[in-house]
Amino acid sequence: MRIDAGTEQMAWFGETGTGVLYGRLAIIHFDGKPAVELLEVVCR
User: Fold this and answer.
1) How many other CB atoms are there within 10 angstroms of residue 23's CB atom?
2) Mean pLDDT for the stretch of residues 4-26
3) Does the structure show a pLDDT above 80 at 44?
4) CB-side neighbour CA atoms (13 Å) of 37
5) How far is CA 39 from the centre of its chain?
6) 3-state helix, strand, coil in the chain (%, to 5)
7) Is 7 helix (H, G, I), strand (E, B) or coil?
8) How many CB atoms lie within 10 A of CB 5?
9) pLDDT tens by residue, 18-34
């Protein structure tokens, strides 16, 4: 997924200004049932 990030979101990664972040979503299953929802985001 592509995220057009503002200054606040970029600050989470120690960056300044605006930019584009990329990420992905996942659901980890345990014993056949959803156990963990995961959002991974990277800035480079």
Assistant:
1) 13
2) 94
3) no
4) 0
5) 5
6) 10, 60, 30
7) helix
8) 19
9) 999 999 999 999 999 99
